[in-house]
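Field reference: sequence -> structure
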Amino acid sequence: MRSSAEEAEEILKNEKINIIITDIKLPGIDGITFTKNVKKQYNLDVIITTGYSSEYFYEDAINNGASDLIFKPIRLNELMLRINRVMRERSLINERDRMIESLRKLSIRDSLTELYNSRHFYAQLEKEITRSDRYLHPLSLIFIDIDYFKTINDSYGHMVGDKALLLIAKKMKMSLRSLDTAYRFAGDEFTIILPETSSEKAKVVAERIRSAMKHESLVIFDKEIPNITLSIGVAEYIRNEEMEHFVHRADVTMYEAKKGGRDNIAISQKLAVLSNDFKVESAAPNI
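Structure field:
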């Protein structure tokens, strides 16, 4: 037990506390101010007590962050009931928060690969484009497609196709920095946002992923599926380019890699121009 709010605040800096019971009348700052202070910094509950029932009201305490207000004299049984009620409410709040966080993750994650999904891709890309325009940093996109994925599904079944998707997701995660983000864009198509990265450096990342995947094989029911290859397109953001144009340019560049023979990387020309129907007017060179 501490005699002042200031002493209690020092304890909170070093110890995990779930419930505080405080009087309104304290040496130094009062219990209401103390409650407001701790609620701004800590996720805990505060029960306020007072013998001045004519001066303070329940609404005053609750509106300032308290979980409950008890008027003196305090009976032990009543105090325990109030504490138990506050603890039950805290448990329900924590469970609700866990559910909300779980739902939030589900809304931005692909359920199979656990990469981010296309919805989150567009939200994150918009932020990165804003940063790139503001700080004049390079920004690149990588688009990846599994070669002959339909053949894999048709020949071996969708379970094997799913394993191929999981394998490429794993290789992508292993090849990226902490500030890069990978996404399952659609079907067997993936994309990576690389902040502060030129197309030349993005090509190095793309080659790392392509090479890693090429040297992998899937073994299903004692049958080996070798040489799962990738077609990859790389595009660097052009200042003030519309997001839809940037995405489409990277996507089209990936298909240029496919036309070049698959198991291939294509780099979009930095000055490539998109027409009104989003067709690339200057074809990306194949690498």
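Note: Residues 272-276, 278-287 have pLDDT under 50 and may be disordered.
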